Every structure is written in C-alpha cells, then in structure tokens.
Amino acid sequence: MTQPATIRRERGHRPRLLDLFCCAGGAAVGYARAGFAVDGCDIADRPNYPFPHHRGDALAYLAHLIATDEIRRYAFVHASPPCQHGCALTVGTNASQGWGRAHVDLVAPTRELLDRTGLPYVIEQPNGRAKIRKDLTLCGEMFGLGVIRHRNFEAGGWTIEQPAHVPHRGRVRGYRHGQYFDGPYVAAYGNGGGKPTVPELQAAMGIDWTDVREELTEAIPPAYTEHIGAAFLATTTLEVAA
C-alpha cells in the first residue's frame, strides 16, 4: 500500500472523517483534536456522541454512501466493528445485507466495503479478538494514561510507523481469582471486582463528555486516535475541493 499524496477538503473547512461503529466518541474526539471534522454512525442511540452522527447500521450506511457517491465528502474512515459475536450488530438490518448471521465476524465485510471507498482508513480491534493486520498497536502507557488498554489498528491505503511499546509500570488494580492486586492502572471493563468508579474511569481514559460506564468501558482513549490522525495529516497534502 502506498501513502496517499493528497486528501480533499472543502475550502475553509477541516478534512472530514467518517467514524463507523462510533459508540460515544472516544475515537472521534481524538481525530477532532488532530484536525478532522468528524461524522459518526452507530446502530444504538448515542446522545453523548459529541459530533453529528447517523443512527443506523454502520455497514448499510457505508454501502449507501458508496452507492450515492456521498462517500466523496470524506478524506478518511475509522471503523471499530464489534468484536463480540452474536451482538446486536449481527442482527436486524445486517441480516438483509448478508452480514447478520450469529457468530459471524464483521471485520471482513467492513474491510471489503472500506476498500471499495478508495479512501485511506483504519480498522480497530482489541487484542485477541477478530483478525486484522496489526499495522499499529497502541497502549495507554505510551500516552501516560491510567489504563493499559492495548488496541490494534489495520491501516488501509496508507502506512504508519509503530512507536516503541513503553514497559508497563505495574499491575492493573482489582481482583484476580479472588486475590486483590494494586497497581497504577485501572480496569476499563466490566463492573465489580475492584473495578474503578466512573470518575476514575473518566480520568484514566481521558474522557469527560460521558459518564455512562458501558460507553467508557467500550471506548478508545482519544489519545490513540489523536496520534493516528496527526500522523496521517502530517504525511499528506490538503487539496482544496473546487
């Protein structure tokens, strides 16, 4: 894959980014800080999402944008397809598109549609879940955060350098097999078992616009995508659309 020479933007506006499976906007805020204008899409109601967004099936929406050529509004696409088999996104409108059978991974059809856009993109997944090419792995310790939260990113149509993985400073706080461990990081998943309070989660993740635990535990720390967005913009030329 080659680095794109130019990306298009409207005169006087930031380049626009499409954030698929957007949840509450952890990724979106990072990209906005890097210099993008962001539009989201999620099948669930996301009143805490801080930017304009479409409520609906992300793959059906992306297919619509491609079919209508509206995808040309965008310079970049981020996608975080759900990694839990049998979740809500594997039913409903996905079924009518052939993506909706239980226990079917959404990464492959997401990648297929993203390749059809002709745009540079990233697909994000946690460690140990759906298979993607690991072009980039980020960790909270790289950004001085209070979580470890490893996330892998596949870069489509562009390249990004892997930063050094900073050694962890200790354990994740909480119970493991009935034993309590202390440490400098909080567990940004689940509830109980020594898990952090919502304010602790917000502080550890760098997220202050939602106080919904489920949204916090599903989020990507904005520092990750600020890094990705800044790296992309630093290696491209902005072309003003006519």
UniProtKB/TrEMBL annotation:
Record-level Gene Ontology MF annotations: methyltransferase activity
Record has Methyltransferase as a keyword: yes
UniProt xrefs under Gene3D superfamilies: Vaccinia Virus protein VP39
Biological process, per Gene Ontology: methylation
The protein's name in its UniProt record: DNA methylase
Keyword line: Methyltransferase, Transferase
SUPFAM superfamilies on file: S-adenosyl-L-methionine-dependent methyltransferases (SSF53335)
Lineage: Bacteria, Bacillati, Actinomycetota, Actinomycetes, Kitasatosporales
InterPro entries: SAM-dependent_MTases_sf
